[in-house]
C-alpha cells in the first residue's frame, strides 16, 4: 500500500501578512514551529503540538497546517482510525480518518479550513484511500454566528463537500445519538470494490439497515 505524501504550499495574504498553508509537513519541520495559544480545542497547545508531531511520524499520518511565520495558526490531521473505535475493526490499510480540524480564532475569516483540506487532496495523493470524518456536535466550537448546532452542521458539510466528501449512513451508536452528528466519506477513484464492501460492513453492524 503506497502512502503518497506530496508536499504542497500556498501563500495567503491576511491583514498585511503572508500566511503559508503547507503539507504534508514532515516531523522535523513541525518540531521547529510553535502553536498559537488559541489552538486548545482538543488539549493544551503544547500537548497538541506533541500529538501533531507523533501523527506526522506515522507512515500513513499527515498534517496540513497554516502558519504565520513560525507559529501554527491552523491544522488538519489525517491518520488511521483509533484502534478503540469501530472504524478500525477491519484493519483496512486504505481507510484514512480526517481527524481534527482547528483554526485559531483570529484567523477564521478567510476559509483556512477549506484551503487546508483542499491542499491535502492535491495531485491525486489520496485517490487510493477511503477518507472519512465523523462529526459530533459536542466537539464543535459553538459560538458567534455559528452558535446554532444546525448552522454549524451546514458549515461542516459545506467544508467537506469542497473535497467531494458526501454524507454516508451508518448505525454507529455515537453518530445516531444526535441528528446533527454525521459520517462523511470520500472514496478515491483507485479504491477497489472489495474495500468499499468491507467499509460497508463496518458502517453497518445490523444487516437490515443496509
Automatic annotation (TrEMBL):
Organism per entry: Paenibacillus hemerocallicola
Keyword list, A-Z: Transferase
Entry-linked InterPro entries: AcuA, Acyl_CoA_acyltransferase, GNAT_dom
Taxonomic superkingdom: Bacteria
Any one Gene Ontology BP term: acetoin catabolic process
Record flagged with keyword Transferase: yes
Any Pfam family hit: Acetyltransf_1
SUPFAM superfamilies documented for this protein: Acyl-CoA N-acyltransferases (Nat)
Single GO molecular function: acyltransferase activity, transferring groups other than amino-acyl groups
Descriptive protein name: GNAT family N-acetyltransferase
Amino acid at each position: 500500500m503506497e502512502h503518497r505524501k506530496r508536499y504542497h504550499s500556498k501563500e495567503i495574504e491576511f491583514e498585511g501578512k503572508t500566511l503559508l498553508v503547507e503539507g504534508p509537513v514532515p516531523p522535523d519541520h513541525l518540531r521547529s514551529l510553535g502553536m498559537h495559544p488559541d489552538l486548545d480545542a482538543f488539549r493544551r497547545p503544547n500537548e497538541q503540538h506533541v500529538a501533531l508531531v507523533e501523527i506526522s511520524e506515522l507512515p500513513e499520518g499527515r498534517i496540513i497546517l497554516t502558519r504565520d511565520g513560525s507559529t501554527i495558526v491552523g491544522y488538519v490531521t489525517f491518520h488511521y482510525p483509533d484502534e478503540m473505535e469501530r472504524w478500525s475493526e477491519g484493519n483496512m490499510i486504505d481507510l484514512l480518518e480526517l481527524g481534527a480540524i482547528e483554526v485559531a480564532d483570529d484567523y477564521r475569516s478567510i476559509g483556512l479550513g477549506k484551503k487546508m483540506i483542499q491542499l491535502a487532496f492535491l495531485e491525486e495523493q489520496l485517490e487510493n484511500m477511503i477518507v472519512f470524518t465523523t462529526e459530533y456536535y459536542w466537539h464543535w466550537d459553538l459560538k458567534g454566528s455559528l452558535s446554532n448546532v444546525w448552522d454549524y452542521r451546514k458549515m461542516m458539510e459545506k467544508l467537506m463537500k469542497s473535497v467531494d466528501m458526501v454524507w454516508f449512513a451508518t448505525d454507529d451508536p455515537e453518530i445516531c445519538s444526535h441528528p446533527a452528528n454525521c459520517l462523511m466519506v470520500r472514496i478515491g477513484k483507485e479504491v477497489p470494490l472489495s474495500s468499499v464492501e468491507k467499509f460497508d460492513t463496518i458502517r453497518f453492524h445490523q444487516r437490515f439497515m443496509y
